[in-house]
Amino acid sequence: MGQPPVFVNDSDFRSRRFDPEFWLPYVQTILEDAGWHRDGSNRLEVGIGGTYPTFLHGDIVIKLFGYLPYWNESFHNEQAAHEVLAADSNVLVPDVRDSGCLFPGEAASWPYLITTRIRGTSWHDASLARDQRLAVAAELGDQIKRIQRLSAGELPTMERWRNLDVSAAAEKSSFPQHLIPQVHAFLADIEFTNETVVHGDLFSRHVFVGGGALTGVIDWGDAMFCDCHYELPKLFLDTFACDKELLRVFLHTAGWSVDHTFARQCMGMALYRQAIGSVQHLTNDVFYQLPDLLPMEDMATIDELADAIFSV
């Protein structure tokens, strides 16, 4: 179907990413190759908020991977995650229906996944009452408990990211700049323990709800097998908006063991998530809400900041 899409820079890709007219010929080819035929009753909808072009067609979702430096790893990572998740039919995640490449053999092959569509709407767009938020937090905790029991499969581990400059990544975020010189020493004391399957990017657009209940978790391209606390920074600092009651409910139903190292582990994993997410995505700021929540300039150490944020 011609040549792979070409973008002159990140801004060009960003402006085209959610443009259904630009991607329509590519999606049409994918649907036809997979045996789905587009008609007027199933219009193409844009999946908002993702890193890669994502489109909804009736009951299925088409996600394309390309352009960004990490596209190939993201594609294979998401495939590996779904293979792991398929071991438990009670996990509320999309099912993979098909996969392939638009341009086999090309350097820019533009692989794609076709998955089922999770009903409902994202936590970000839902108007949940307080009791509903608490109920969904509990249901999400139960789901994460199930997921943590799964085997690692072919998921990457933290070894994949050992050479990242975590301090430099933190410096480009809303993390307190006066604490940057402490990052290296702080992380030197963080141990990678309690390794489990983690989604890694449970921000508010990836958690779906309907009728006041959890309906599923989407977008598994950042999944890993690593320290379980890596699951918490995006969930708590974004989806839960630093609401400790929601976090406590989640931890309780997840059967999470909270000890004296909990806040430090969470902060350590938040710093790693900032660094890894900066590679995986166009934009990333794990700590973006903190300036509005805490007098960060008053925090003398990272440990003090960790306790203020994550202590439960």
Please describe what this structure looks like.
It is a single chain. The chain has 312 residues and is α+β, with helices and mostly antiparallel strands. The protein folds into 2 domains: 10-116, Phosphorylase Kinase, domain 1 (2-Layer Sandwich), CATH 3.30.200.20; 121-310, Aminoglycoside phosphotransferase (APH), C-terminal lobe (Aminoglycoside 3'-phosphotransferase, Chain: A, domain 2, Alpha-Beta Complex), CATH 3.90.1200.10. 37% of the residues lie in helices and 14% in strands. The chain contains 10 helices and 10 strands. The protein has helices at residues 10-16, 20-33, 71-85, 130-148, 166-171, 183-188, 232-239, 244-254, 262-280, 302-310; strands spanning 44-46, 54-57, 60-64, 96-101, 111-116, 121-122, 195-198, 207-210, 213-217, 224-227. It has a 5-stranded antiparallel β-sheet with strand order 1-2-3-5-4, with helices on both faces. Strands 6-8-9 form a 3-stranded antiparallel β-sheet, covered by helices on one side. Strand 1 (44-46) and strand 2 (54-57) form a beta hairpin. Helix 4 (130-148) runs parallel beside helix 8 (244-254) and helix 9 packs across helix 10. The radius of gyration is 20 Å and the shape is globular. The chain starts with 9 loop residues before the first helix and ends with a helix. The model has no long low-confidence stretch (mean pLDDT 94).
